[in-house]
Write a structure and sequence with these properties.
The complex is a heterodimer.
Chain A: H1 14-49, H2 51-76, H3 81-106, H4 110-132, H5 142-162, H6 166-177, H7 184-195, H8 213-241, H9 243-253, H10 257-264, H11 271-309, H12 314-327, H13 334-348, H14 364-388, H15 396-438
Helix pairs in contact in A: 2-3, 2-9, 3-9, 4-5, 4-6, 4-7, 11-12, 11-14, 11-15, 12-13, 13-14
Chain B: H1 7-21, H2 25-29, H3 39-46, E1 49-54, E2 59-61, E3 69-75, E4 78-82, E5 90-95, E6 100-101, E7 115-118, E8 122-128, H4 129-138, H5 140-176
Antiparallel strand pairs in B: 1-8, 2-7, 3-6, 3-8, 4-5, 4-7
Classes of the chains: A mainly alpha, B alpha+beta.
């Protein structure tokens, strides 16, 4: 019977063993480097081509991450893990459902949009003329003489954008006739002003162009196409956003398997260090993210309360306060986004329902700025020290460049997530290098 | 007729099965610090254990490195050595399957007092301090049993060290006399 050819070979000596180990080390390095480059290339590719999925995935993971302490607390109280997961998922879905439903109720219908366009145009021009001191002979105050030539073209383009054509005007009037809730007197005034609107740069009336018959047909078919594409795009958006609860569920179900899988890939030299880094990063980021979410909720509540106090509509103030609270995540510059959004709404408001008698439509913009200043003072004096603990020390230049880079890459969402992403990366790198030194892996 | 499955699929199923199977609870139950735990409790403990493989001569941890995990020997042998300024290291102990080392790391964040090497190809189980801390919060009864046994083992090792120290003192006094 033939024996295996290797069985007669003498056992390898010390030199051969060392050579074998050296070759294995070189081979391992090559394979790990190539697969590392491939892996990061793949991640980059996915980030670029699956960009629409990033936000639902990140939000799902973030929500699950924030819910982890809640999950542990339920488990400690004797609720089985599966029941806690179902409970949290149910809560998450109910929250999503009511948020979407609330957002949908705030979206105006087609005719309401026309009404808003007319009223917004009237209010914004009234406010502009008041602040610039423009009277009938178009003299204007000092401010107008200084920046008027720059602002007039902007106002004209806003007017052109808001202006209704004859067909839209007709449709608005027909709809308003059957709506008892609409104040006809006010609407007629708006429509009259709308029809007599004169451009600031050119002394001419804004003339509506009635579309030709052929164009009307083309428009009608386009509306059909738009209707179809609207359904398709809605379904598309829905299918993408379905990823969010799925990610939430998977991350919540995970009982340390992701961490174990990651650690199993780490070489022995880095085993304890990796566990320590993961633990420290998890603790630091967890504290930061949970603190940031609590701060955002507190800031939104504060701004909402103050906006309602100065006469904003409570329902719209919810949206404005949430935008301002979320924008506040961006240090220094975020505040201005909140102020800008609230000022834009203050400029188009029709009436002020403030309990403070001295607040009028004409000084509402000033009060909006004061509200944000008060909210910022409360945030810096109370919320940040108590909620965030230690301040996240990012240099303003890093904040500025990070926010710009984030917005260039992923738009408004990139702008919001840039700073938390920078904080997380900074925490990972600083912990990683600190532990590498502690474990004598680098100098 | 026996169904032949492609090796690739069989590997995938094996790895899936292994993931669920976790660490051998019988082995865990034979280790002193886990000996009072029931099978269900051992299963919970096994979910926080990490399995590592070390080649002969590979270091597991070095003296003065921060300690974050305790190791249990599944198969193979481990030498605990005290590093000296000269090249010669002092071998403090040779450990076998079922033995564990680095247990102080579970109690506090202090540097390692000795170096551990795998003297043969060795499979180890590691338990991380923070995971034990979380276990204390989530499963206080299990954690209390582990901590009690850990305290007993540390006490026994301290007594043995004292005994050795006494013997050495006696020998030194005898030589001096």
């Amino acid at each position: 019977m033939n024996s295996l050819p290797n069985s007669k070979k003498p056992s390898p000596g010390r030199e051969e063993k060392l050579e074998f180990r050296r070759k294995r080390t070189v081979r391992s390095r090559i394979i790990y480097s190539v697969s590392g480059v491939f892996f990061f290339g793949l991640i980059l590719y996915l980030l670029i081509f699956l960009k629409p999925l990033i936000l639902p995935v990140v939000l799902g993971l973030l929500a699950a991450y924030l819910c982890q302490p809640l999950l542990s607390s339920l488990y400690r109280k004797g609720v089985p893990r599966w029941a806690s997961v179902i409970l949290l998922l149910g809560g998450f879905m109910i929250f999503l459902f009511f948020s979407v439903r609330y957002a949908v109720t705030l979206i105006p219908g087609e005719n309401e949009q026309l009404q808003y366009r007319v009223s917004i145009q009237d209010n914004i021009n009234d406010r502009y003329q008041y602040y610039m001191g423009i009277d009938d002979d178009e003299e204007g105050n000092v401010v107008y003489n200084l920046i008027g030539p720059e602002l007039d073209p902007l106002m004209d383009s806003i007017n052109r954008w808001l202006h209704l054509n004859d067909q839209e005007l007709e449709s608005l009037e027909d709809w308003a006739a059957g709506e008892p809730s609409i104040d006809r007197q006010v609407l007629n005034r708006y429509i009259e002003n709308h029809n007599n609107r004169v451009l600031y740069t050119e002394p001419e009336l804004l003339v509506s162009e009635r579309p030709l018959e052929a164009d009307q047909d083309a428009d009608a078919s386009q509306v059909d196409d738009e209707g179809e594409s609207l359904i398709l795009s809605t379904l598309n958006v829905l299918s993408i956003w379905l990823v969010m609860p799925v990610m939430f569920l998977f991350f919540l179900i995970d009982n340390g398997q992701i961490r174990k899988g990651f650690i199993s890939m780490v070489p022995n030299n880095y085993f304890e260090m990796s566990l320590t880094v993961l633990n420290n990063v998890d603790r630091a980021i967890g504290n930061y993210l949970r603190g940031t979410v609590i701060e955002t909720v507190l800031m939104s509540a504060t701004i909402w309360l103050l906006l309602v106090l100065i006469g904003f509509d409570a329902r719209i103030a919810v949206i404005l306060a949430i935008i301002s609270g979320i924008a506040n995540v961006i240090p220094i510059f975020g505040m201005f986004i909140g102020i800008a959004v609230c000022i834009v709404y203050a400029l188009i408001m029709e009436e002020v329902n403030s309990i403070l008698p001295f607040i009028t439509l004409n000084n509402l913009v000033l009060w909006t700025v004061i509200v944000h200043a008060i909210a910022q003072a409360i945030d810096n004096a109370v919320y940040k020290p108590f909620v965030l603990g230690r301040a996240v020390s990012l240099h303003p230049i890093v904040v500025f460049l990070g926010a710009i880079a984030g917005s260039m890459l992923f738009g408004f969402i990139g702008l919001l997530f840039a700073i938390p992403a920078i904080v997380i990366i900074k925490e990972i790198l600083s912990t990683f290098f600190r532990e590498m030194k502690a474990y004598f892996l680098i100098y | 007729m026996r169904k032949i499955i492609h090796p690739l699929w069989s590997n995938i199923f094996k790895s899936l099965f292994r993931e669920k199977e976790g660490v051998d609870t019988e082995l865990l139950g034979s280790i002193p610090i886990f000996k009072n735990l029931s099978r269900r409790e051992l299963n919970i403990v096994s979910s926080i254990l990490f399995e590592r493989h070390y080649e002969a001569g590979e270091s597991i941890f070095l003296m003065h490195q921060p300690g974050a995990a305790m190791f249990i020997i599944k198969t193979g042998e481990v030498e605990i050595q005290l590093e000296h300024d000269d090249d010669e290291n002092l071998v403090l102990a040779k450990l076998e399957p079922g033995d564990f080392f680095g247990e102080i790391a579970l109690l506090e964040n202090s540097p390692r007092s000795a170096t551990a090497y795998a003297s043969t190809n060795t499979d180890l189980l590691a338990i991380f301090r923070t995971d034990l801390d979380k276990l204390i919060e989530k499963e206080p009864f299990i954690a209390a049993k582990i901590m009690k046994q850990l305290a007993i083992v540390v006490g026994v090792r301290l007594k043995e060290t004292n005994k050795l120290f006494d013997q050495k003192l006696d020998v030194d006094e005898f030589i001096a006399q």
